Structure prediction request, 113 residues.
Amino acid sequence: MSESKKKENFFEDVYAVVRLIPEGRVTSYGAIASYLGAKGSARMVGWALIASHPATQIPAHRVVNRVGMLTGKQHFDEPNAMQQRLEAEGVRVENEQVMDFDKLFWDPTKELL
DNA sequence: CCAGTGACGGCTA
DNA sequence: TTAGCCGCCACTG
Prediction:
């Protein structure tokens, strides 16, 4: 197998996990990275989401950083879309920040396993 | 080829 | 406790 294909596998893997995030739930880049074995490389997860933006339809708005902050909202079609969608799913967002992030947090290494 | 940046996270002061 | 720095990996200039 080609090594270049491996990089795509990582991207596909990220998309798969993000798509598995239940509605009204959120997760962090580090959690996904850890689940994929790229522990410590949470930035790569974020980079994967950018590459997947319009090409791959995934609930990227359910992915936030470890403090529950909508750091990637600026990369959406409209910065308001991220918070808008989260609230539409029942996730309360205050000042670009997810409320009850601890309760809504969905850990793939624990929930998905 | 080298340096800077970035949807992050963890550690140290 | 809060604030700041470094580390990981890939891409752009």
Q: What stands out?
A: The first strand of chain A starts at residue 27 and ends at 28.
